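Per your request, structure below.
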Protein backbone atom coordinates (compact mmCIF):
# COMPACT_ATOMS: atom_id res chain seq x y z
CA UNK A 1 0.00 0.00 0.00
CA UNK A 2 1.42 3.39 -0.95
CA UNK A 3 1.97 6.09 1.68
CA UNK A 4 -0.83 8.34 0.39
CA UNK A 5 -3.37 5.55 0.81
CA UNK A 6 -2.08 4.69 4.28
CA UNK A 7 -2.58 8.29 5.41
CA UNK A 8 -6.11 8.78 4.18
CA UNK A 9 -9.45 7.45 5.35
CA UNK A 10 -10.64 4.58 3.19
CA UNK A 11 -14.43 4.15 3.15
CA UNK A 12 -15.60 0.55 3.26
CA UNK A 13 -18.21 -1.01 0.99
CA UNK A 14 -21.19 -2.97 2.33
CA UNK A 15 -19.35 -6.21 1.49
CA UNK A 16 -16.22 -5.06 3.29
CA UNK A 17 -18.25 -4.06 6.34
CA UNK A 18 -19.79 -7.54 6.33
CA UNK A 19 -16.29 -9.05 6.35
CA UNK A 20 -15.26 -6.73 9.17
CA UNK A 21 -18.32 -7.90 11.08
CA UNK A 22 -17.20 -11.51 10.69
CA UNK A 23 -13.91 -10.59 12.34
CA UNK A 24 -15.76 -8.54 14.94
CA UNK A 25 -17.99 -11.44 15.91
CA UNK A 26 -14.92 -13.58 16.62
CA UNK A 27 -13.67 -10.87 18.97
CA UNK A 28 -17.10 -10.65 20.62
CA UNK A 29 -17.26 -14.39 21.22
CA UNK A 30 -13.72 -14.62 22.60
CA UNK A 31 -14.15 -11.64 24.93
CA UNK A 32 -17.50 -12.95 26.16
CA UNK A 33 -15.87 -16.26 27.05
CA UNK A 34 -12.93 -14.55 28.74
CA UNK A 35 -15.31 -12.37 30.76
CA UNK A 36 -17.08 -15.50 32.01
CA UNK A 37 -13.82 -17.33 32.68
CA UNK A 38 -11.57 -14.91 34.55
CA UNK A 39 -11.56 -15.84 38.23
CA UNK A 40 -9.35 -15.71 41.30
CA UNK A 41 -6.29 -17.91 40.83
CA UNK A 42 -6.15 -17.58 37.06
CA UNK A 43 -2.94 -16.11 35.63
CA UNK A 44 -3.01 -13.43 32.98
CA UNK A 45 -0.96 -15.71 30.71
CA UNK A 46 -3.67 -18.37 30.94
CA UNK A 47 -6.18 -15.77 29.72
CA UNK A 48 -3.86 -14.88 26.84
CA UNK A 49 -3.52 -18.50 25.75
CA UNK A 50 -7.27 -19.05 25.95
CA UNK A 51 -7.93 -15.99 23.77
CA UNK A 52 -5.44 -17.06 21.11
CA UNK A 53 -6.75 -20.63 21.06
CA UNK A 54 -10.40 -19.59 20.75
CA UNK A 55 -9.60 -17.14 17.94
CA UNK A 56 -7.78 -19.80 15.93
CA UNK A 57 -10.62 -22.26 16.43
CA UNK A 58 -12.79 -19.67 14.64
CA UNK A 59 -10.42 -19.26 11.69
CA UNK A 60 -8.79 -16.03 12.90
CA UNK A 61 -5.35 -14.97 14.07
CA UNK A 62 -4.61 -12.67 17.01
CA UNK A 63 -4.04 -9.16 15.66
CA UNK A 64 -1.88 -7.90 18.51
CA UNK A 65 0.74 -10.65 18.55
CA UNK A 66 3.95 -9.15 17.16
CA UNK A 67 2.26 -5.84 16.30
CA UNK A 68 4.96 -3.18 16.73
CA UNK A 69 6.77 -5.82 18.76
CA UNK A 70 3.97 -6.56 21.24
CA UNK A 71 4.79 -9.99 22.72
CA UNK A 72 1.31 -11.44 23.35
CA UNK A 73 -2.13 -11.99 21.83
CA UNK A 74 -4.19 -10.26 24.54
CA UNK A 75 -3.72 -6.98 26.35
CA UNK A 76 -4.78 -7.66 29.95
CA UNK A 77 -4.47 -4.75 32.36
CA UNK A 78 -5.31 -5.02 36.05
CA UNK A 79 -6.52 -2.35 38.51
CA UNK A 80 -4.41 0.81 37.97
CA UNK A 81 -3.08 -0.52 34.65
CA UNK A 82 -4.86 1.44 31.94
CA UNK A 83 -3.94 -0.42 28.77
CA UNK A 84 -1.34 -2.67 27.08
CA UNK A 85 -0.70 -4.85 30.11
CA UNK A 86 1.44 -7.84 29.09
CA UNK A 87 0.22 -11.32 30.14
CA UNK A 88 2.47 -13.05 32.65
CA UNK A 89 2.65 -16.51 34.23
CA UNK A 90 3.27 -14.87 37.61
CA UNK A 91 0.42 -12.34 37.58
CA UNK A 92 -2.38 -14.11 39.43
CA UNK A 93 -5.86 -12.58 39.47
CA UNK A 94 -7.39 -11.99 42.88
CA UNK A 95 -10.88 -11.38 44.19
CA UNK A 96 -11.85 -7.76 43.61
CA UNK A 97 -9.39 -7.11 40.76
CA UNK A 98 -10.59 -4.86 37.95
CA UNK A 99 -9.46 -6.49 34.70
CA UNK A 100 -9.36 -4.91 31.24
CA UNK A 101 -9.44 -7.38 28.35
CA UNK A 102 -8.43 -5.84 25.01
CA UNK A 103 -8.37 -8.21 22.04
CA UNK A 104 -8.20 -8.07 18.26
CA UNK A 105 -8.13 -10.58 15.43
CA UNK A 106 -7.50 -10.75 11.71
CA UNK A 107 -9.95 -12.94 9.82
CA UNK A 108 -9.88 -13.16 6.04
CA UNK A 109 -7.62 -10.11 5.92
CA UNK A 110 -9.96 -7.91 7.99
CA UNK A 111 -9.56 -6.73 11.59
CA UNK A 112 -11.88 -6.82 14.59
CA UNK A 113 -10.97 -4.95 17.79
CA UNK A 114 -12.81 -4.56 21.10
CA UNK A 115 -12.30 -4.38 24.85
CA UNK A 116 -14.26 -4.98 28.05
CA UNK A 117 -13.65 -4.44 31.72
CA UNK A 118 -14.75 -7.04 34.23
CA UNK A 119 -14.48 -7.43 37.96
CA UNK A 120 -12.99 -10.61 39.38
CA UNK A 121 -15.32 -11.72 42.12
CA UNK A 122 -17.05 -8.89 43.94
CA UNK A 123 -15.96 -5.37 42.91
CA UNK A 124 -15.65 -2.38 45.21
CA UNK A 125 -18.36 0.27 44.95
CA UNK A 126 -15.92 2.56 43.13
CA UNK A 127 -14.95 -0.18 40.67
CA UNK A 128 -18.58 -0.99 39.91
CA UNK A 129 -19.38 2.68 39.29
CA UNK A 130 -16.30 3.07 37.12
CA UNK A 131 -17.32 0.09 34.96
CA UNK A 132 -20.85 1.46 34.60
CA UNK A 133 -19.57 4.92 33.68
CA UNK A 134 -17.06 3.69 31.10
CA UNK A 135 -19.63 1.44 29.42
CA UNK A 136 -22.07 4.34 29.39
CA UNK A 137 -19.43 6.62 27.88
CA UNK A 138 -18.85 4.11 25.08
CA UNK A 139 -22.57 3.95 24.36
CA UNK A 140 -22.80 7.72 24.15
CA UNK A 141 -19.76 7.94 21.91
CA UNK A 142 -21.22 5.35 19.55
CA UNK A 143 -24.57 7.14 19.46
CA UNK A 144 -22.79 10.28 18.23
CA UNK A 145 -21.25 8.45 15.24
CA UNK A 146 -23.77 9.47 12.59
CA UNK A 147 -23.24 10.97 9.11
CA UNK A 148 -23.09 14.75 9.08
CA UNK A 149 -21.42 15.00 12.46
CA UNK A 150 -17.69 14.94 13.19
CA UNK A 151 -15.17 12.70 14.90
CA UNK A 152 -14.96 15.33 17.63
CA UNK A 153 -18.62 14.77 18.48
CA UNK A 154 -17.76 11.23 19.58
CA UNK A 155 -15.07 12.46 21.96
CA UNK A 156 -17.22 15.31 23.24
CA UNK A 157 -20.03 12.89 24.11
CA UNK A 158 -17.63 10.57 25.94
CA UNK A 159 -15.91 13.40 27.77
CA UNK A 160 -19.10 15.12 28.93
CA UNK A 161 -20.59 11.94 30.34
CA UNK A 162 -17.42 10.86 32.15
CA UNK A 163 -16.90 14.24 33.79
CA UNK A 164 -20.56 14.37 34.82
CA UNK A 165 -19.79 11.28 36.91
CA UNK A 166 -16.68 12.90 38.46
CA UNK A 167 -14.21 10.62 36.67
CA UNK A 168 -11.57 11.54 34.07
CA UNK A 169 -10.84 10.54 30.47
CA UNK A 170 -7.36 9.34 29.52
CA UNK A 171 -5.99 11.66 26.84
CA UNK A 172 -2.81 9.92 25.75
CA UNK A 173 -4.63 7.15 23.89
CA UNK A 174 -7.46 7.35 21.39
CA UNK A 175 -9.69 5.28 19.18
CA UNK A 176 -8.84 4.82 15.51
CA UNK A 177 -9.95 3.64 12.11
CA UNK A 178 -10.12 -0.10 11.48
CA UNK A 179 -9.93 -2.08 8.25
CA UNK A 180 -7.26 -4.29 6.78
CA UNK A 181 -4.89 -2.75 9.33
CA UNK A 182 -5.37 -2.57 13.07
CA UNK A 183 -4.80 1.19 13.16
CA UNK A 184 -5.99 3.34 10.29
CA UNK A 185 -6.95 7.03 10.07
CA UNK A 186 -8.62 8.85 11.68
CA UNK A 187 -7.70 9.24 15.34
CA UNK A 188 -10.82 9.18 17.51
CA UNK A 189 -10.05 11.11 20.72
CA UNK A 190 -12.20 10.61 23.81
CA UNK A 191 -12.23 14.31 24.67
CA UNK A 192 -12.29 17.68 22.99
CA UNK A 193 -14.77 20.00 21.33
CA UNK A 194 -17.81 18.90 19.38
CA UNK A 195 -17.64 19.69 15.68
CA UNK A 196 -13.88 19.14 15.45
CA UNK A 197 -12.05 16.62 13.33
CA UNK A 198 -13.04 14.65 10.26
CA UNK A 199 -16.66 14.68 9.06
CA UNK A 200 -18.35 11.34 9.66
CA UNK A 201 -19.31 9.61 6.42
CA UNK A 202 -21.04 6.32 5.62
CA UNK A 203 -18.41 3.62 5.18
CA UNK A 204 -16.10 4.84 7.92
CA UNK A 205 -15.18 2.06 10.34
CA UNK A 206 -13.94 3.20 13.73
CA UNK A 207 -12.79 1.76 17.03
CA UNK A 208 -14.37 3.84 19.80
CA UNK A 209 -12.60 3.12 23.08
CA UNK A 210 -12.92 5.31 26.15
CA UNK A 211 -10.38 4.71 28.91
CA UNK A 212 -11.61 6.23 32.15
CA UNK A 213 -9.72 6.79 35.40
CA UNK A 214 -11.10 7.14 38.90
CA UNK A 215 -8.64 9.95 39.61
CA UNK A 216 -6.36 11.98 37.37
CA UNK A 217 -6.47 11.48 33.60
CA UNK A 218 -2.67 11.36 33.49
CA UNK A 219 -0.75 8.12 33.00
CA UNK A 220 2.82 6.90 33.22
CA UNK A 221 4.59 4.03 31.50
CA UNK A 222 6.25 1.02 33.10
CA UNK A 223 9.73 -0.21 32.27
CA UNK A 224 8.37 -3.00 30.04
CA UNK A 225 7.77 -0.33 27.39
CA UNK A 226 4.09 -1.20 26.98
CA UNK A 227 2.03 -1.04 30.16
CA UNK A 228 0.45 2.33 30.96
CA UNK A 229 -0.75 2.90 34.54
CA UNK A 230 -2.63 5.74 36.20
CA UNK A 231 -0.27 8.42 37.51
CA UNK A 232 -1.96 8.39 40.93
CA UNK A 233 -2.34 4.62 41.30
CA UNK A 234 -6.15 4.69 41.21
CA UNK A 235 -8.38 2.40 39.17
CA UNK A 236 -8.95 2.58 35.42
CA UNK A 237 -11.55 1.00 33.10
CA UNK A 238 -11.68 0.48 29.32
CA UNK A 239 -14.46 -0.46 26.89
CA UNK A 240 -14.21 -0.60 23.11
CA UNK A 241 -16.30 -1.52 20.08
CA UNK A 242 -15.55 -1.44 16.38
CA UNK A 243 -18.40 0.33 14.61
CA UNK A 244 -19.39 1.25 11.06
CA UNK A 245 -20.91 4.63 10.27
CA UNK A 246 -23.98 4.03 8.07
CA UNK A 247 -26.90 6.05 6.72
CA UNK A 248 -29.09 4.25 9.24
CA UNK A 249 -26.86 5.11 12.18
CA UNK A 250 -23.89 3.40 13.84
CA UNK A 251 -23.60 -0.36 13.38
CA UNK A 252 -21.64 -2.18 16.10
CA UNK A 253 -19.48 -4.84 14.46
CA UNK A 254 -18.14 -6.41 17.65
CA UNK A 255 -21.44 -7.33 19.28
CA UNK A 256 -23.92 -10.06 18.35
CA UNK A 257 -27.36 -8.65 17.54
CA UNK A 258 -28.76 -6.80 20.49
CA UNK A 259 -26.35 -8.44 22.89
CA UNK A 260 -23.98 -6.22 24.85
CA UNK A 261 -20.60 -7.33 26.06
CA UNK A 262 -20.36 -7.65 29.86
Amino acid sequence: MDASRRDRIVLKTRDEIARLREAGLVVHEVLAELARTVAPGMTTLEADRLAASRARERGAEPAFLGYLGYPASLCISVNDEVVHGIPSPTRVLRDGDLVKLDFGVVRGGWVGDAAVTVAVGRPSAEAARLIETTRGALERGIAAAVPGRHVGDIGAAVHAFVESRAFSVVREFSGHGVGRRLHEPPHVPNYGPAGAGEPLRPGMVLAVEPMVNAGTWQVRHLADGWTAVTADGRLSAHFEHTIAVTEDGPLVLTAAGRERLP
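The helical segments are 3-6, 14-37, 44-57, 125-143, 151-164.

Regards,
D.
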